[in-house]
Structures are given as structure tokens and as C-alpha cells.
Amino acid sequence: MSDEIRRPPRRNKPKFNRIYFFPVSIVLIYVVLYFISPYTVFVALISSGKVFLSMLVPLLLIFVLMVLINLFVKPAQVAKLLGRDSGIKGTLLVAVAGILSTGPIYAWYPLLRDLKEKGAGNYAISIFLYNRAVKPFLLPVMVDYFGWLYVIVLTILTVVTSIFIGYSVNIAVTPDGE
């Protein structure tokens, strides 16, 4: 036996997982407010339920997309289509995907992270996020307010600028501009 002092084994104390902090605190706030103003809490819960239901379809769509990508798309394919050597084809693909994407942006973050882990570059993800500003279903309303020329120029400049932004983000974030 060595001269080292033996320490008793540490017991693993259960830690409070930080992921539960926000939901637990919200429930506690609702419980406290229920005793102060039950009607207001009821109205807030109804409103929260409506927001949740409006987010459900985009979240389910993104979940299905993530499952399909994980089943059928290999990391090498993602890297080829959306990686740094994807070329004009990958740039156009990700720009169109950004334009056609619907729902709240934060619902897309898990899918984008998954694609990044499979080999998509910062360039492609930036272009996707930037092109979400172009919404085809809103174009007729924009034309009505601003005219065809304005909408066409704005849309083209948005797509072209997204490429510049993607390139800039890639240089700024990726070590050695890889």
C-alpha cells in the first residue's frame, strides 16, 4: 500500500437539472398568480394554448424532416450539398429552402444544428437564415403596397446579399476560413 491518503468515494448527489428551471418557475408563477387573479390566469393559459397550437404544425413538419434526414441522408451527402465545396448548386438549394421555409425561425434551429453536425457549413446555414426574409405568400401584398419593380429588386438584392453574408459569416466564424 502506498503512503497516499485514501479518500472516501464521493457520493453522487442528484443535481437539479437546469433544463427544468424555466418550466418549473413558469408553473410556480401561474400557481401564485392563480390565487391573485384566477380569471387572468385562465385567459393567459388559453392564449398560451393558442400559441402552442399555432406552432404545432411547423414543429411537427421540422421533426418529420429531421427524422427523414437522419434516416436517408448520410453526413457525406450533406457535406457535398451544403458543405464548403457545394458550389453554386448548394448555394441555390439552400437559398430556395430558406425562401420556402415556414413557421417560426426558432423551430428550424434543431434541424440546422443537425445539418451542421452532419457537415453543412456556416455559409449554407447563414444563407438559409437570411433568405427566410423572402416569403412568397407575402409577395402579392408587397406588390400591392410597393409595386412590382420594388419587390423584384428587393427580392433579388436579398438573395444576392445572403450570399455575401454567408461568405462573411463563414470567414468570421470558421477557423482559417475553412
Query: How many domains?
Result: 2
The total strand number stands at 0
Main beta-sheet strand count, sense and barrel state: none
Write the element-wise H/E pattern from the N-terminal end onward: HHHHHHHH
Taking Cα atoms only, what radius of gyration do you get, to the nearest Å?
24 Å
What is the average of the pLDDT values? Answer: 82
- Strand fraction band? under 5%
Count of DSSP-assigned helices: 8
- Oligomeric assembly: single chain
Global outline: flat
Question: What share of residues is helical?
Answer: over 70%
Low-confidence stretches: none
Features:
178 residues, mainly alpha, 2 domains, 71% helix
Short synopsis of the structure:
The chain is 71% helix and 0% strand.
Q: How would you characterize the overall build of this protein?
A:
The protein is mainly alpha-helical. It folds into 2 domains: 19-72; 74-178, no CATH class. 71% of the residues lie in helices and 0% in strands. The chain has 8 helices and no strands. Helix 1 (21-36) runs antiparallel to helix 2 (38-72) and helix 6 (122-131) runs antiparallel to helix 8 (148-173). The radius of gyration is 24 Å and the shape is flat. The N and C termini lie far apart (53 Å). 16% of the residues are buried.
